[in-house]
Amino acid sequence: MSQVRIDWKVLEDFTKKIFVEMGMRPEDAETEARVLVWANLRGIDSHGVLRVPQYLASVQKGGMNPDPDIQVLRETPAVIFVDGDHAFGPVVTTFTMERVMEKAGEVGIGWGLIRNTTHQGAMGYYALLAAEKGMAGIALVSNPPNMAPYGAKARGIHNSPIAISVPAKEHRPLVLDMATSVAAGGKVDLAVDKGVSIPEGWALDVEGNPTTDPEEAAILLPFGAYKGSNLAIMFACLSNIMAGNPLVAPTLAGQEVRPGTQNSVVAAVDIGTFSDLEMFKENVDDLVDGIKGLPKAEDFDEILMPGELEDRVHEERAEEGIPLPEGTVQNLREVAEKLGVEVPEGL
Amino acid sequence: MSQVRIDWKVLEDFTKKIFVEMGMRPEDAETEARVLVWANLRGIDSHGVLRVPQYLASVQKGGMNPDPDIQVLRETPAVIFVDGDHAFGPVVTTFTMERVMEKAGEVGIGWGLIRNTTHQGAMGYYALLAAEKGMAGIALVSNPPNMAPYGAKARGIHNSPIAISVPAKEHRPLVLDMATSVAAGGKVDLAVDKGVSIPEGWALDVEGNPTTDPEEAAILLPFGAYKGSNLAIMFACLSNIMAGNPLVAPTLAGQEVRPGTQNSVVAAVDIGTFSDLEMFKENVDDLVDGIKGLPKAEDFDEILMPGELEDRVHEERAEEGIPLPEGTVQNLREVAEKLGVEVPEGL
């Protein structure tokens, strides 16, 4: 399979220019590009620049709004409720996370609810923002259905991801970032771009039959059977229904939902309110070292921490460049051509 | 397998008397009995009165404290940090959840961190307390290790459960309550009491080899491979390490940890701060109806909501009595005899 390697800064700059041409303010375009390329840097290619053509299509269909009027609907010392006006997810989510962290600094926790955001990229990004400020970060999101609830053979819930991050001392911050499906939808898209099949158990086709063809995959399957399914249902309640924007039931009832709409929760817990921050970080290091030192299961050489694999990829790709499969490159070139953005050398 | 059926009120009263004889204040004994029998009513027998002999043993070893001095260590308008002084879990957790719900009523969210609690029973109980007050409830807990992290064949993390509950209108509140292991540890204990084997994939023996003998089961296995494992690691950070009481790494390093110690987070999000509560409840009903109406997967007659199975058992057992296996009955009789508590008729 053919691919190219591109410097992350070049890719970020190119991606930013594309977003500016889509109608975004330069600072918003920068945020958006940063979040996507961060995902690529960490090997989460399913949430990286491969999304750009989808975003352009969404803007053109009246889904994602490149020039949003973000509103704070309600605010207390501990919570904030924001309407994103269908902003690109990273724009409104970064805005909200910053406010949430301020609140956590004041009263120990900040809890942000975002209505009418659109695709936010990798949720781990926002959780990590908190960890980098000495806080625990939590982020989750729910969309219209793309996953079969346990026991169903049709779409009925979103494969809501959740991210949680905490700082460590010598180790990198821990960053859990997982979908409630067996595999994130973007991983299916990536298989399409790569022209490879997907494992059994990831998805059903539109008729509800199991498939390993990513082009046929229409319905994701929950991880851990009823456990992943039930987590996704509760996350839909905490985000969509809490925000008065239920998405799932209206879609199932055949009502029109603005394409790309999603609702999200971001939260930060201030560690210093409860414990000494340095002691916390040392204790996370000890936890990591303790677990990594355990006897290994058969076929395992090491035990990985949440985000550890991504940290290694990050280091390697920051140095060596980000590999993009030919399908993704071709799509990006087409977008650039449509928008009159020059394609950088090497892409 | 022989079993008896006992009226839940009789069982609760008997259990309360046992706890009073263990040295608990009557109101605390009542709380403790209520939480355990609630689990039995809902069919979560692994977290019900089968625990009573373990609790007595723990009190005698200096683990659980029947007469605790519960302290509020820190408090803001949004958070509370409580030291449970090794109280029986339901006593300190109910106390903290009440305070957390007051805060949520004021500022939209309340976040409670509990240090030095002991076994809390079924975590769904506390999440449901919030749902019954028009709030979303969240509860999680972490203990010393009893589960193999993904990639390990030894204990290295606790199979932390998480519970989330929200109210509905015509439907019962949704109550997710799940361990991050394939099966909760109490389910292994229950298999011992019932004299049955456990399914493959639940547990390893003390050497790290797979076992289906509940008497040999020493190490639980995470659900969803690395996903359940990583959730458990993050929950340990949010509870144990946040509370300055890390438990896991010290245990792995061979240090003494007071038996039965655990740390917990309970939180409530006030729905009315964000949305109209009645609309929220109607939207939860619509979500439930939408999902339950989906085409069923092969071998499924219906799609169950979080807590729905338990609601049905609750209704049946409230009417017909709680079935207890012979092993559990025998253990309860022995405890009653030791403490001089009269065994009620029918047990």
Explained architecture:
Two copies of one chain form a homodimer. Chain A is an alpha+beta fold and 347 residues long. Helix content of chain A is 40%, strand content 18%. Chain A is built from eleven helices and twelve strands. In chain A, the strands form three sheets. In chain A, strands 2-3-4-11-5-6-7 form a seven-stranded mixed beta sheet. A three-stranded antiparallel beta sheet of chain A has the order 9-8-10, with no helix packed on it. In chain A, strand 8 (203-204) and strand 9 (210-211) form a beta hairpin. In chain A, helix 1 (8-21) packs antiparallel against helix 2 (26-41) and helix 2 packs across helix 4. Chain A is globular, with a radius of gyration of 20 Å. The model of chain A has no long low-confidence stretch (mean pLDDT 96).
